Amino acid sequence: MAGADHGGSAWFVNAGIGVQMSGIKDEDFVSHNIAPLINITAGKWFSKELALQAGYKGPYYNAIADDKKHHYYFLYGEALMNINSLFPDYDPAAFWHLLLHAGAGYYYSQDYKRPNICANLGLSNYLLLTNRLKGFMDFSAIVGWDIYQGDEDILPGVTMGISYSF
Predict the structure, then answer these.
(1) DSSP string spanning 145-162?
(2) pLDDT of 112-133, one tens digit each?
(3) Which of 53, 71, 141, 152 qualifies as a FRET site for 23, CA 20 to 30 Å off?
(4) 157 lies in a domain?
(5) Rg of the Cα trace of the chain?
(6) 84-93 burial, b for 16+ CB within 10 Å, e for fewer?
(7) Distance separating alpha carbons of residues 153 and 31, to the nearest angstrom
(8) Residue 74 domain-assigned (yes or no)
(9) Residue 152 burial (CB < 10 Å; 0-12/13-18/19+)?
(10) Is residue 106 within 8 Å of 58, Cβ to Cβ?
(11) Which domain holds residue 152?
(12) What total of structural domains would you count in the chain?
């Protein structure tokens, strides 16, 4: 997110790194289920409330069933809603922005060798660093059917990164 204070420059790119795991059940919370996560997006603000972005997530996740790295890629598009803009005293130049984002995308598992359409849902916090640069923390998840265990599956993740607006 470039922040809703784009002041004529509504385009932005984000790059973040973090961690993800397969599943959210109690048995999934073990150290060997944690894997790196890369999240890269680009998008455009259309108003102070709404932006659209396209992105990539990957490169692999670990599972509790084995010690294998399960490689995948997820290409997605989504809408972003600036939660702060819903309040009457909203200041577009504020230090902090909270975004809700949701969309769908093309998920391809190199284990299954077949595509899947999955949802991407999340919440992001953005902090103003300079006029065009922001730091962010994103809490999001890829949600789908049969992406790694044959039923409803979720790949939750947390990334931290930089957003540049132009």
Answers:
(1) ESSSSSSEEEEEEEEEEE
(2) 888 999 999 999 999 999 989 9
(3) 53
(4) yes
(5) 16
(6) bbeeeeeeee
(7) 19
(8) yes
(9) exposed
(10) no
(11) 11-165
(12) 1
Asked whether the beta carbons of 164 and 2 are under 8 A apart, the reply is yes
Q: Is 109 helix (H, G, I), strand (E, B) or coil?
A: strand
Task: Give the pLDDT confidence score for residue 43 in this predicted structure.
Answer: 98
pTM of the model: 0.87
- Separation of alpha carbons 161 and 1, rounded Å: 11
User: What type of residue sits at position 24?
Assistant: I
Tell me the residue length of the chain: 166
Unique residue bearing structure tokens 């997006």:
41
Q: CB under 8 Å to 58, separation ≥6 — which residues?
A: 37, 38, 71, 72, 73, 74
Q: How far is CA 160 from CA 16, 25, 148, 156, in A?
A: 5, 24, 25, 14
